From TrEMBL:
Keywords: Chaperone, Hydrolase, Nucleotide-binding
Superkingdom of origin organism: Bacteria
Taxonomic lineage: Bacteria, Pseudomonadati, Pseudomonadota, Alphaproteobacteria, Hyphomicrobiales
One MF term in the entry's GO annotations: hydrolase activity
Record has Oxidoreductase as a keyword: no
Domain CobW C-terminal: 252-343
Protein name as catalogued: Cobalamin (Vitamin B12) biosynthesis CobW
Length: 343
């Protein structure tokens, strides 16, 4: 039996930044590695896991793609994380490398601390933490209105928390990262891309690489095989929640909306755009049955930017049921959002 630790890459990033797209790209370009994927999502419906299973192959078979839904992985270490990793390592052909795609609302630091567990520490190591960011959103200052002003306020009064909940999530993800991916770089011009890069640099406590990419297409040699052993330098990754015994996600709310069977693709897209614009929905994703179409429609919305594509035919053994997972800040109006999507 090999005593070499199996490397684990943690892929974090805000809602809709392109984490699943990056994982899918790495699955398609494993460079000889036998991969396993662990996907953690909020809500009962694992959309990202389904997307990745559609890309399964000999290097990463479908049964090596594990979904953990309806909970935060970093909050359920003993119940979910340790048994899942143990099962992957016990496979007849264990993976050479494990990718963990965290929920968009997850804080990476508690997950990093899980690697200190005695049952895991001798068997796996954090090869690197990759933070995926949406270049357009960061350039527009979605997570903090004025980063310089907030930095000044912190210096003047460290007892007051001036961050919005979204800002804290973003900053903690950057603080833990070994590499930051500025995804969707094609959606911004050179000046806005530079602004996004400056915003990331302002939040990073260390000098780390920032890579501009389109559609998650990055050379695997850049993000795999880093050898960071991040579990050994947690003090170099300071976050807002270091002094907290635990954390929660009460600032956010997840809804699962069932759509009518007569939905059209145009109506679904328009509805997602409307709930983002009028109700502050951060993320919407799911599968929709479209009248007269044998294939299911994969819908992914990030704010008011919506992408939709037919990904595969509905199987004979699955119900043609349309669900969208909708994520927003606490207090979003379920009834109003449902009314818009029901059309």
């Amino acid at each position: 039996m090999s005593i070499e630790k199996i490397p684990v890459t943690i892929i974090t990033g805000f809602l809709g930044s392109g984490k699943t797209t990056l994982v899918r790209h790495l699955m398609q370009n494993p460079q000889g590695r036998r991969l396993a994927i662990l996907v953690n999502e909020f809500g009962d419906i694992g959309v990202d896991g389904e997307i990745l299973k559609g890309c399964a192959d000999a290097n990463c078979p479908e049964d090596a793609i594990v979904e953990l839904t309806n909970g935060c992985l970093c909050c359920t270490v003993a119940d979910d994380f340790v048994p899942t990793i143990t099962a992957l390592l016990a496979r007849p052909n264990p993976p050479d490398h494990i990718l963990i795609e965290t929920s968009g609302l997850a804080l990476p630091k508690p997950l990093l601390k899980a690697f200190e567990w005695p049952d895991l520490r001798s068997r796996i190591t954090v090869d690197g933490v990759i933070a995926v960011t949406d270049a357009e959103a960061v350039a527009d200052g979605r997570f903090a209105h004025d980063l310089a002003a907030i930095a000044r306020q912190r210096q003047e009064d460290t007892s007051v928390d001036h961050d919005t909940p979204l800002g804290e999530v973003f900053e903690d993800q950057i603080a833990c990262a070994d590499i930051v991916i500025l995804n969707k770089a094609d959606l911004v011009d050179a000046a806005r891309l530079a602004a996004a890069r400056e915003a990331v640099q302002a939040e990073s406590p260390r000098n780390i690489p920032i890579v501009d990419v389109i559609e998650g297409r990055v050379d695997p040699r850049i993000v795999l095989g880093i050898g960071a052993a991040a579990e050994d330098d947690l003090d170099q990754r300071p976050t807002h929640h270091d002094s907290h015994d635990a954390h929660d996600h009460d600032d956010f709310e997840t809804l699962v909306i069932t759509l009518p069977s007569h939905a059209s693709a145009e109506a679904v897209i328009a509805g997602v755009e409307t709930i983002a614009r009028e109700h502050g929905v951060l993320r919407a994703k799911g599968y929709v049955a479209i009248s007269g179409k044998p294939m299911r429609l994969l819908v992914q919305g990030v704010g008011s930017r919506v992408r939709a594509q037919f990904d595969r035919p509905w199987r004979a053994d699955e119900p043609r049921t349309s669900h969208l997972v909708v994520i927003g800040e606490r207090g979003i109006d379920r009834d109003a959002i449902t009314a818009v999507l029901a059309g």
